[in-house]
C-alpha cells in the first residue's frame, strides 16, 4: 500500500503531498481544490508506462484538441496533453512527476515533453509558412515533440514514448494501440467516476466475477439497498454491452418470480453495484472513486463503508475516494469506531487550496471529530 504520495507540476498542483495514508483514504475539500486530480495522479503512478488509464482520464474530461496537421488526419481524436501540466502550457523539457512510498520502497513516474528529430522529407512546414498569414511559428517547435513516460522502482526502469502532433495533441487511437508487456506485473486499478460506470464497463467487470467466490459479495452489496434481492445476472446482448445507459442487468427478488431490470430500482442500486464490482476487480490493487456518495441515501452510507472496508481488507485493496458530504465522512467515522482499523488505517485527507500538504486525520481523530461535530471538510 502507498503510505505517502507526492505530486509535482501536475494539473492544479505545483507541489503537493499526501501523508500517513491508510487502506481507506477519503479526500475532502472545497470545489476545485484538486481532489479528482489527486485520484488521477495516483492511478497514473500505478499504471506505470501504460497509456490506457491516461487516455481514459483525459477522455472523461473531454480534453481534446483539434489538429489540422496533414500527418494527423485520419487518426481520430487527439488528447490535449497540456492540461496535464501545471499552468496548462507545454514546451520542450516540461515535465510533471508523481511519486510514492509503496511497501517501504519509492516508485516514481515522470512525464516529460522531449524534442525528437524529424524526417527531412516531412520538414516542409518551414518552407511554406510564408504562404499562410498569421502562421504561428511556435507550432514548428511543437511538431518536434514527444510525450515521454518514465517509471522507476528500485533498480527497475520502464520508458514509453509517443509522438505529439503539430498542436501538441496525443492521438487517442495510439494510446489504445500501445499495449503493456503482458509479462510485466502491473498493479490493478479501477476508477469509478462521479457519473458511475456505464453498462459496457459493468458487464465486463461482472464477467470477471461471475462463478467466482467473489460473486456472492456482489449480491450482498445489493442487499444493503434491497434485502429481498436473491440473484443478479447480466443480459448478454451486444446492444447492452455498447450502451451508455444504466441497463444490461436483471435481479430476482425473494417475493417475486419476475426478473426486474436493475434500472427500475434507482440510481443507488446502480451505484452500489458499480462500487462492488470495481472493488472486487481491483483485487491486490487500488480502487479510485470520485464522489463516492453519489446516488446513495445517507442511511445507506454506513453499510456502503462497511462493504468497502471488509472487502478491501479481504482482497487487499487500497481505496482512494472523494466526497463533499458530511453524511459520508461521519458514516466513515462509525466504521473507524466499530472496526479494528488501526492496523491498516482509515484516513481523511483534507485538501486545501494553496496548501502543499493535505491535512491528515487518523481513525481516532475522525471519531473525535464526528462525536464533537467538528467540521473536517
From TrEMBL:
It comes from Plectonema cf. radiosum LEGE 06105. Residues 21-352 form the AAA+ ATPase domain. It holds the Pfam family AAA_15. Gene3D superfamilies: P-loop containing nucleotide triphosphate hydrolases. This is AAA family ATPase. Signal peptide: none annotated.
Amino acid at each position: 500500500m502507498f503510505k505517502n504520495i507526492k505530486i509535482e507540476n501536475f494539473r492544479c498542483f505545483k507541489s503537493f503531498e499526501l501523508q500517513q495514508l491508510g487502506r481507506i483514504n477519503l479526500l475532502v475539500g472545497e470545489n476545485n481544490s484538486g481532489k479528482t486530480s489527486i485520484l488521477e495522479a495516483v492511478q497514473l503512478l500505478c499504471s506505470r508506462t501504460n497509456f490506457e488509464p491516461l487516455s481514459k482520464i483525459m477522455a472523461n474530461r473531454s480534453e481534446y484538441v483539434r489538429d489540422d496537421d496533414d500527418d494527423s488526419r485520419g487518426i481520430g481524436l487527439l488528447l490535449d496533453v497540456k492540461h496535464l501540466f501545471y499552468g496548462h502550457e507545454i514546451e520542450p523539457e516540461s515535465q510533471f512527476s508523481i511519486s510514492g512510498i509503496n511497501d517501504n520502497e519509492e516508485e516514481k513516474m515522470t512525464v516529460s515533453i522531449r524534442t525528437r528529430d524529424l524526417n527531412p522529407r516531412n520538414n516542409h512546414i518551414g518552407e511554406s509558412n510564408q504562404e499562410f498569414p498569421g502562421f504561428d511559428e511556435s507550432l514548428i517547435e511543437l511538431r518536434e515533440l514527444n510525450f515521454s513516460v518514465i517509471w522507476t522502482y528500485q533498480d527497475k526502469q520502464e520508458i514509453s514514448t509517443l509522438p505529439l502532433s503539430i498542436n501538441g495533441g496525443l492521438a487517442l487511437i495510439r494510446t489504445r494501440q500501445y499495449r503493456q508487456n503482458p509479462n510485466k506485473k502491473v498493479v490493478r486499478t479501477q476508477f469509478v467516476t462521479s457519473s458511475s460506470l456505464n453498462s459496457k464497463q459493468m458487464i465486463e467487470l461482472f464477467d470477471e466475477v461471475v462463478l467466482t467466490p467473489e460473486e456472492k459479495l456482489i449480491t450482498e452489496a445489493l442487499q444493503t439497498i434491497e434485502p429481498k434481492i436473491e440473484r443478479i445476472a447480466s443480459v448478454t446482448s451486444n446492444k447492452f454491452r455498447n450502451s451508455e445507459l444504466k441497463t444490461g442487468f436483471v435481479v430476482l427478488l425473494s417475493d417475486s418470480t419476475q426478473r426486474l431490470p436493475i434500472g427500475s430500482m434507482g440510481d443507488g442500486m446502480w451505484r452500489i453495484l458499480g462500487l462492488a464490482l470495481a472493488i472486487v476487480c481491483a483485487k491486490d490493487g487500488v480502487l479510485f472513486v470520485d464522489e463516492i456518495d453519489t446516488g446513495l441515501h445517507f442511511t445507506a452510507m454506513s453499510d456502503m463503508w462497511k462493504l468497502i472496508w471488509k472487502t478491501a481488507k479481504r482482497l487487499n485493496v487500497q481505496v482512494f475516494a472523494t466526497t463533499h458530504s458530511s453524511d459520508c465522512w461521519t458514516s466513515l467515522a462509525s466504521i473507524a469506531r466499530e472496526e479494528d482499523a488501526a492496523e491498516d488505517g482509515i484516513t481523511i485527507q483534507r485538501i486545501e487550496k494553496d496548501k502543499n500538504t493535505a491535512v491528515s486525520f487518523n481513525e481516532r481523530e475522525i471519531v473525535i471529530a464526528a462525536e464533537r461535530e467538528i467540521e473536517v471538510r
